[in-house]
Design brief:
188 residues; mainly alpha
């Protein structure tokens, strides 16, 4: 004769089937901390909420504070943009332990300036090259202004310049990260 199970026994069997592994728990914890970091970053940068102290908000989390701090710093580092510098980002990084943002701010500015200068020089060279090729075909005049955006040589140069900025920005982010972590580890 078949065994009849109680509702409790059935519920316990189902609960065992949906038991969460330690890997999943760790992943959920990291996702929750990344979400808190994103929210804290958003509140600080978007809403102009300077009434919150980043370090105090991070300390409130308790034992996972160092992981949250790392995630918040990562958010600020990702927000560094040579074409759209933001004092809010530097203020946040300073609050998170970056002692002197000025050399890093200057480097970010230099990246943007070097890229703009490289683009101007390359664009002028390519325009001259296109004008010269048009003159050889018998087309000339002061009204000729070549559109270089579709020029393959310009696209290659533009891509190379973007890669230089990207590499420089990655290096800067690492330097700022190290400077911030050094300061935070010595403060503990």
């Amino acid at each position: 004769m078949g065994e009849i199970k109680s509702t409790l026994e059935i519920a316990l069997e189902k609960a065992k089937a949906v038991e969460i592994s330690s890997e999943d728990r760790e992943r959920f914890k990291h996702e929750a901390i990344h979400s808190k970091a994103r929210d804290l970053f958003q509140r600080y940068t978007s809403h102009g909420d300077r009434s919150i102290s980043l370090s105090e908000a991070i300390k409130k989390i308790g034992k996972d504070a160092s992981l949250l701090e790392e995630c918040v710093i990562e958010r600020f580092l990702e927000a560094l943009d040579p074409y759209n510098p933001s004092e809010t980002i530097w203020a946040g990084l300073s609050e998170l332990g970056l002692e002197n943002p000025n050399p890093f701010r200057d480097t970010l500015s230099r990246l943007a300036e070097e890229n703009a200068r490289g683009r101007r020089e390359a664009a002028e060279d390519i325009r001259k090259m296109v004008r010269d090729s048009l003159v050889k075909e018998g087309i000339s005049g002061t009204a000729i202004d070549p559109n270089i955006e579709e020029n393959t040589h310009w696209k290659d140069i533009s891509k190379a310049l973007d890669q230089e900025v990207s590499a420089g920005l990655d290096g800067l982010r690492q330097e700022v990260s190290h400077a911030t972590k050094r300061r935070n580890s010595s403060a503990r």
